[in-house]
Amino acid sequence: MSNPSDRSEVESDRELELISRAQQGDRSAFAALVRLHQDEVFTLARRLVGDPHLASDVAQETLIRAWKSIGRFRGDAKLSTWLYRITVNTAWTHKERAKKHRATPIDDHIELAAPDGVDSPEFVGEVVELRGRLKSALDRLPDGQRNVVVMKDIYGWSHAEIAEAMDISVTAAKVRLHRARARLARDLEESA
């Protein structure tokens, strides 16, 4: 029986090999990297921009940007972290363009489950109402704060991973998260 850490080392070695080949211009190696990470890139893009069509554009542009700059990937961070950073930047650019044309709603990524044994219509109604209030409050957050909330509270990223992805300091990531959560709490309280 194989050890899970042995398996992840093999996968990591395989990814390093693909990165090296892609940096030398091997399109098939880059395509293999895309297959490994495209779902994660799209999911993050969807959660950042809210609209599946715009998220598809963001994911595609992210991967194009990654191909164009794979030669500059130094390996200081994991490839996935590097791709997330490109995704965040690309999403921000697309959202700024989209603001000129229309507002984009937040994704239905907030799951509120009923406690065991509770499936009353009243509870379901409360959950639907709370989800709507939370989505509205998230929509009102500035992009930088919203992105930090999505990365921390939905993806479970560490402050260091958020700082790396957004090209800010760890302290700035903590401050943005604190301010975003305080603003969300205030908005939710006012809308109750």
Outline the structure in words.
By secondary structure, the chain is mostly helical. The chain has two domains: about 1-105, Orthogonal Bundle (Rna Polymerase Sigma Factor, Chain: A), CATH 1.10.1740; about 110-190, Arc Repressor Mutant, subunit A, CATH 1.10.10.10. Helix content is about 75%, strand content about 0%. Helix 1 packs across helix 2 (about 25-50). The chain is elongated and about 55 Å long.
Give the name of the CATH architecture of the largest domain.
Orthogonal Bundle
* Poorly predicted parts: 101-112
Note the total helix count.
8
Shape, please?
A: elongated
- Summing up helix and strand content along with how strands pair, one would put the structural category as mainly alpha
> What portion of residues is helical?
over 70%
Q: What's the helix-strand series?
A: HHHHHHHH
TL;DR of this structure?
This protein is mostly helical. Helices cover 75% and strands 0% of the residues.
